[in-house]
Amino acid sequence: MACVHQWKTQNKKIMIKNYLKVAFRSLARNKGYTVINILGLAIGIAFSCMMYVYINNELSADQFHSKSSDTYRLTLTDKRVPDQWRKFGSVPPPTAKAMAEDFPEVMDQVSLYQFSGQVVFTIDGENFQERSWFSTQANFFDIFDFEFALGDPATALKEPYSLVINETTAQKLFPNVNPMGKILENTNYGTLKITGVVKDLPENSHIQFNFLLSQVMTGERWSQFQGNWNSLGAYSYVVLKEGTDVKTVEPKLADFQEKYFGPMAEVFQPGFQPIEDIYFKSSDIEFTMEEYHGQMSYVYIFATMGFFILLIACINYINLATSKAAYRSKEIGIRKVVGAFKKQLVAQFLTESFMVTLISVILAVGIMDLAFPFFNDITNKSFDLNLATLSQYIGPLLLIALIIALLSGSYPAFYLSRLRPVSSLKGGEVGGSNSGNLRKILVTFQFVLTIVMLVSTFLISRQLDFIQAKDMGFDKDKLLVIDINSGNVRRQFQTMKNEFEAIPGVESVGVSSRVPGEWKNINQFYLRPMVPEWEASDSLRAYFMGFDEGMLRTFQFQMAAGRYFKNNGEDSTHVIINESAAAALNLSEAVGKRMRISRDEGPVDVTIVGVIKDFNFQSLHSKVSPIILGTWDNPFRVIDYFTLKVSGDMQQVLAGANAVHERFDTATPMEYHLLDKQLEIFYEEEQRAGLIFKMAAFLCIFVACLGLLGLASFMVEKRKKELGIRKILGANEFGLFYLLSSAIGKQVAIAFVIASPLAWYIMSNWLQAFEYRVNFGVGVFLISGLIALSIALLTISYRAFKAINSNPVDSLRQE
Predict the structure, then answer these.
(1) What is the DSSP string of 639-688?
(2) pLDDT: which is higher, 3 or 654
(3) 628 membership: H or E segment, kind and range
(4) In the chain, % of residues over pLDDT 70
(5) Distance from C-alpha of 147 to C-alpha of 157, rounded to nearest angstrom
(6) How far apart are CA 87 and CA 284, in angstroms?
(7) Which of 221, 264, 274, 517 is within CB 3.0–4.6 Å of 679 for a Cys-Cys bond?
(8) Rounded to 5 degrees, what are φ and ψ at 86?
(9) Are 647 and 720 in the same domain?
């Protein structure tokens, strides 16, 4: 028995060696076929693997913490106005601590605070400004597992006035120096000591900071802040005991509201949001710390694109393998005659498939290494492929390779292995019409995918161009927005404004609490006419901005009725509303109407003096919302920006503005941005999606063309005698080209009919995300179809014309 077992083992080794040898010879003998398959599969594998890595990064947002599945962000829902509920990602400072005391299910809690926007730190007499900062408690790193480069997470924030920074900030402030123990000074918070350095935070974390401070307020001031239930001031998190279902805790919130919110318990409702849901499920939450939110629709789209590219590459392999059947029919026949079993033939062809796939995977790694820098620019990620990170990609690569090898190799293997020995040895037509029909179906399917990708790419580009060109209701070009970060500047803003206006190249200057295109949270209040039929519960929720008299000229707003503000100090309780607010309040004649604005500090009665034409002060994803404009000295919000309308050289204006700023604000560097560039941030996700679509469309076309080129070569080779006879009988070149290309033309036409409604459905749904969107007709579909047809004809034309122009005698000569 041992001898028999040894013989079987030795025989299997010989068979495997023989499979590999025959596979290698077959691939080497058909170099063009091999190159087309390997290149197409390599591109498909590389792109799909990059899509896998990107999607995995998106879906794993905030899941790298050991306690992430039990950690929840606290939210607060404001129900004061029916059908206009608001949800906040910030809660009163005492909320998390009170929950930890009242709910036994809460194991731990922590809060992050940001008491002002910009802070300025001084190091050895030099000032540095920072906006990405928070203050927190000592147990922060017990809940969030951010990796430390220097220091101990257990003690880094234990003492007040401790400071943890990230590696990038450490290198910026203390290049090539150990920052531990270094001292920073701040006018508001005093002396701070660096006690830890964390590695740069993962991009898929909603918590991002450069500076993390321990407790910087003490005594009575801190006690008052921690006991204030009347304002939103904390980004708070609670950790439930392992295995606790949050649904068992939520019923207790009613008693919690009643206990702590008092009279407002009926309208203020706290809630729990899993931190693993924050990235994708927070678009309706206001006052959050995260800068970006994901869109699950893009995850589905990118996953589909990766699958499409892979599928097209696999279709190429199947088409070329089955087309090549006639040239391997004698080999198959001889193998069967000498006793080869079907399973041995299947194993042989699967071996070839695995060999092609393995070579393609190796090539795909090189393609990924070259493509990742470009891919990172598109996706705003930092993926890298090196010896240290290669292990992250081995799993996806091997999985994709296995799927491809089986998917692309199985049909040709079983198809070729069932050819009959007699017909195979005759060298005649093999496979009948079924194989030809399958190839036609697969090629048509390739063109369906290609046309869908082309239509999508065109429409995304048109929508983004439409957004850039759309009239937003104000002139957004060459507007320089300068932040006000000093109380001294606010007290002397008129003098400073005059000096800004004196800079050569500055047309006008406006002052405001917020600006159109604002990336921060815009304040909202509740507005209602002071008439008996309007109850407080019917109030209109409206945004609020404070403008001075210079904003009208600077932004070139248009008045619809009434007047704009005057520079006489008499308009502090006068307001202007936009057309949307007037329509929502059902005011046909709004000017002169008395209104009441509700706020936490108490109501304020105002008079409408004008109605301004609607302008888009937010992104074009949303329609124009109601807005109230108050004067610069309104009782609601202080001024926060200068906006300069620039007509001259921007660099000269910047230099002049910086000189003015330094005379009035010696504590903080000038902080500014160009408004048109800021507005583009609203559409970064769409810009990235558009670039990925273009890349995917190009790859779809390229990979499909590779397969088409291979099919054209086999098609011409198969019909070369027919072409020779037709040419001898007088057929012209155009007629012969039409003969070879008509089948492809029909397949593209069928693909166009199938792809058009599919592309229309996909892009109609995508455009629903925009309140203002481009209209599209049949033109974009026709153009995409013509491009697909042109590409197909150009792909086969080289091989076709080469055959047409060959000597017909050579075509008719028997081989």
Answers:
(1) --EEEEEE-S-HHHHHHHHHHHHHHH-SSS---EEEHHHHHHGGGHHHHH
(2) 654
(3) strand 627-631
(4) 81
(5) 15
(6) 7
(7) 517
(8) -125, 140
(9) no
Are the CB atoms for 608 and 525 separated by under 8 Å?
no
| Co-location of 676 and 689 in the same domain | no
As a whole number of angstroms, the distance between CA 198 and CA 136 comes to 15
Residue 234: DSSP 8-state: B
Report how far apart, in Å, the C-alpha atoms of 128 and of each of 36, 122, 339 are.
Answer: 56, 6, 82
Q: Are 47 and 92 part of one and the same domain?
A: no
Query: Total domain count for the chain?
Result: 3
d(CA 648, CA 507): 9
- Pair type for strands 86-88 and 285-286: parallel
Percent of residues, the chain, with pLDDT higher than 90: 31
Q: Which position has the token pair 């005057």? A: 566
Say if 591 falls within a structural domain. Answer: yes
How many DSSP H helices and E strands does the chain contain?
Answer: 24, 25
Most confident of 288-302, 558-572, 644-658: 644-658
* Plot region of 576 (φ>0 → left; ψ -120 to 50 → alpha; else → beta): beta
Interior angle at CA 642, CA 640 and CA 648, nearest 5 = 160
Give the pLDDT score at 344: 65
Looking at the structure, do residues 310 and 457 belong to the same domain, yes or no? yes
The SS3 call for residue 270 is: strand
Check if the beta carbon of residue 740 is closer than 8 Å to that of residue 802. no
580-584, 599-603, 699-703, 769-773 — most confident range: 580-584
Q: At 488, give phi and psi (nearest 5°).
A: -65, -40
Same domain, yes or no: 585 and 502: yes
Closest alpha carbon to 74 in 85, 63, 62, 89: 89
Residue 54: both structure tokens together: 């990107």
Buried b (16+ CB within 10 A) or exposed e, 466-482: ebeeeebbbebebbbbb
291 within some domain: no
Model pLDDT for residues 547-568, shown as the tens digit of each residue: 999 999 999 999 999 999 987 6
Structural domain including 192 reads 72-286
Q: Are residues 646 and 693 in the same domain?
A: no
Contact (CB, 8 A) for 550 and 711: no
pTM of model > 0.70: yes
What is the mean pLDDT of the segment spanning 565-572?
80
